[in-house]
């Protein structure tokens, strides 16, 4: 397996560091340690939505009511 390193500029302190290809990190090792406790902006996004609504067609309800009423 090959590793490709990319030269990156740290967004925290501006130093140059090498990042393995495929990683999403933007901070160098020391900044990453410093910032580990802070959430990244991307992770603050709201995730997901409340559960799906189940829609019952009006006709189905009418059938249920009719069946219940007839019994
Ligand atoms: Zn840094």
Question: Can you describe this structure in just a few lines?
Answer:
It is built from two helices and two strands; from the N terminus they run ββαα. By secondary structure, the chain is α+β, with helices and mostly antiparallel strands.
Walk me through what this model shows.
By secondary structure, the chain is α+β, with helices and mostly antiparallel strands. It has a domain at 1-42. Helix content is 28%, strand content 14%. The chain has two helices and two strands; from the N terminus they run ββαα. It has a two-stranded antiparallel sheet with strand order 1-2. A hairpin with a 6-residue loop joins β1 (5-9) and β2. The chain is rod-shaped and about 75 Å long. Residues 10, 12-13, 15, 27-28, 30-31 line the site of zinc ion. Residues 10, 12-13, 15, 27-28, 30-31 line the site of zinc ion (ZN).
Features:
28% helix; 2 strands; alpha+beta; rod-shaped; binds zinc ion
The residue ranges in which pLDDT falls below 50 over 5 or more consecutive positions are none
Summarize model confidence as the mean pLDDT.
Answer: 79
Bound molecules: zinc ion
What's the total count of β strands?
A: 2
How large a portion of the residues is in β-strands, by DSSP E? 5-15%
Ends: how far apart? 71 Å
**Element-level helix/strand string:** EEHH
Major beta-sheet overview: 2 strands, antiparallel
Quaternary = single chain
Which secondary-structure class do the elements indicate?
alpha+beta
Query: What is the share of helical residues?
Result: 25-40%
| Radius of gyration over all CA atoms, rounded | 27 Å
Count, helices? 2
Strand order of the largest sheet: 1-2
Backbone shape: rod-shaped
């Amino acid at each position: 397996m090959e590793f490709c390193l990319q030269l990156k500029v740290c967004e925290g302190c501006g130093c140059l560091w090498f990042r393995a290809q495929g990683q999403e990190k933007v901070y160098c090792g020391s900044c990453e340690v410093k910032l580990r406790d802070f959430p990244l902006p991307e992770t603050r996004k709201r995730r997901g939505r409340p559960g799906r609504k189940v829609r019952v067609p009006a006709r189905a309800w009418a059938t249920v009511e009719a069946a219940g009423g007839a019994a």
